[in-house]
Specification:
This protein is about 35% helix and about 30% strand. The longest helix has about 45 residues, at about 190-240. By secondary structure, it is an alpha+beta fold. The chain is built from 9 helices and 23 strands. This is VCBS repeat-containing protein. GO terms for molecular function: toxin activity.
């Protein structure tokens, strides 16, 4: 693995604006209304990136790649000295950039920082080729290259995190002590808990030094690539070019892994759905919360077994909670650490404490006894809020996440997190996000989407009238929801209030899958479950 200083150098230099130059200046030249000196813009962009890139390459001692970079820079310089007669130099530079990327891709994760910069250099060259040659096909090349670059980076990141997760061994009892290891380093302690604590600290330090700089750099570059891709797609459309769907969508959430009806009749707004592994068999089960018009005159819990593909009931029960309405939102989590999922009821308004309240029913009692009832520092809330629970800060306690969709102080969708360790009395995050203000067209999910130990914000855009698909965006927990890591249409048509969404790891891969619950107007005359592979 590359030395951390390599990543630090690249991240600092790009942070100074090298990539921003490509993301703004070059795009102004290509699609803006001003008429700058294009050749000079491109030359400065590439040279500035090349300086950063050179530092990374020298640090990693990649002589072969360094030679290709030098050839690329020479071709660009020659082209800019005589752009009208040296177009072939630009084509040679394009070939150099492709060779360079192939070399860096073969290095896997250690070459990732350099690959990110080299891919951005190639985007710049392709933009210049389109500009000077007038070949509209270069627009498709730009979009194709961005897609391929994202795929390559995602593969490298996934392998790195898989390696990282395999660095820890499980604690083992030997005579009067416990032993484990991290990254080959032995750990000893008198108790299992003490060994796990040492292992956690070593893991966090390693991640901070070795993985976080790359993740931060990738997110910064990805933001620029998304912007360039969106403008290029718009430009291609205006030019009358049909952009293949494969170039405009991510590979995520395009293919179905389950379509099924269930024994549950079609449902309406008196039902809310969520998922949990209720019976501990390792499969996500479907939890249907029946809020009103119930046979027991209480809020009811009905659970369909995931192991049966949601064909058999494993729990149907009333609760001590009276029938409820749209001032309540429900979710399931193991609140008290007993290994059983508990039912969390968020009372948003018309509360005794004049605040948003949290009420939790014990899963161990089949939801018959209360284990927490409390007000919070959050005022009473309305339909501009959505709620969910997750262990946001990694302390082992579920925290309460409040998504404020509109009428916000930041003019963006906001994320506010109350600490579970404080029984929801203290804030641990309050932030605006990269997403504009939103409405009922959007549903929010908190999930460790890529299995990297970060709680990302998954945004499901059901679509305005006329939209051709439901879209999914993810905002990274690593950036406190300031950076997108995914923007894509899905394999699902535009949806409406008859759908609810969730994330589960249905097929056992690293990424979470997207579940669409179709509540009514279904072909099977039942509530249906449809799952798109993550």
């Amino acid at each position: 693995m590359a030395e951390p200083i390599t990543w630090t150098v690249v991240a600092i230099e790009i942070g100074k604006g090298a990539l921003a130059w490509v993301g703004t200046k070059v795009m102004e030249g290509l699609f803006g209304t001003r008429k700058p000196n294009y050749a000079r813009l491109q030359a400065e962009s590439i040279k500035q990136l090349a300086v950063v890139f050179q530092k990374a390459l020298e640090a990693e001692r990649l002589q072969e790649a360094t030679d290709k970079l030098n050839s690329l820079v020479r071709n660009i310089e020659n082209y800019n000295n005589a752009p009208l007669t040296s177009l072939f130099r630009l084509h040679d530079a394009a070939n150099d950039s492709l060779d360079l990327l192939s070399t860096l891709a073969s290095l896997g994760y250690p070459g990732l920082p350099s690959y990110l910069v080299a891919a951005s250099v190639r985007i710049t060259i392709l933009q210049e080729l389109h500009l000077v040659a007038g070949d509209q096909g270069e627009l498709l090349n730009i979009i194709l290259h961005i897609r391929d670059s994202i795929d390559e980076c995602e593969n490298s990141m996934a392998k790195a995190f898989q390696m990282f997760q395999g660095m820890s061994t499980s604690p083992t009892a030997i005579v009067d002590k416990w032993v484990a290891s991290f990254n080959g380093e032995g750990i000893w302690g008198r108790t299992r808990a003490s060994v796990l604590d040492q292992q956690r600290k070593l893991s966090e330090a390693f991640r901070k030094a070795q993985l976080d700089p790359n993740e931060a750099l990738y997110e910064k570059v990805l933001k620029e690539w998304f912007g360039i891709r969106e403008v290029t797609i718009e430009r291609a459309t205006l030019a009358g070019i049909e952009v293949p769907r494969a170039l405009t969508v991510a590979p995520n959430f395009q293919s179905w892994i389950l379509h099924t009806g269930t024994p549950l009749h079609e449902t309406d707004n008196t039902f809310q759905f969520t998922f949990t592994d209720w019976n501990g068999d390792g499969r996500p089960d479907l939890v249907a919360i029946k809020k009103s018009k119930t046979g027991t005159k209480s809020t009811e819990v009905h659970i369909l077994s995931g192991a049966s593909n949601f064909q058999s009931w494993i729990l149907q029960t009333g609760t001590p909670l009276h029938e409820t309405d749209d001032t309540f939102q429900f979710m399931v989590t193991d609140w008290n650490g007993d290994g059983r999922p508990d039912l969390v009821a968020i009372k948003k308004s018309k509360t005794g404490t004049k605040s948003t309240e949290v009420h939790i029913l014990s899963g161990a009692s089949n939801f018959q006894s209360w284990i927490l009832q409390t007000g919070t520092p959050l005022h009473e809330t309305d339909d501009t809020f959505q709620f969910m629970v997750t262990d946001w800060n990694g302390d082992g306690r579920p925290d309460l996440v409040a998504i404020k969709m509109s009428k916000t102080g930041t003019n963006s969708t906001e994320v506010h997190v109350l600490s579970g360790a404080s029984n929801f009395q203290s804030w641990i995050l309050q932030t605006g996000t990269a997403l504009h203000e939103t409405d009922e067209q959007y549903q929010f999910i908190i999930a460790d989407w890529k299995g990297r130990g970060r709680q990302d914000l998954v945004v499901v855009n059901k679509g305005k009238p006329g939209a051709d698909s439901t879209e999914v965006y993810t905002l990274s927990g690593f950036s406190n929801y300031q950076n997108y890591t995914l923007k894509t249409k899905t394999g699902l048509h535009r949806t409406d209030g008859g759908f609810e969404f969730a994330m589960v790891n249905w097929n056992g891969t690293g990424n979470s899958d997207l579940v669409a619950i179709k509540k009514r107007v279904t072909g099977s005359n039942s509530t249906e479950v449809h799952i798109l592979a993550g």
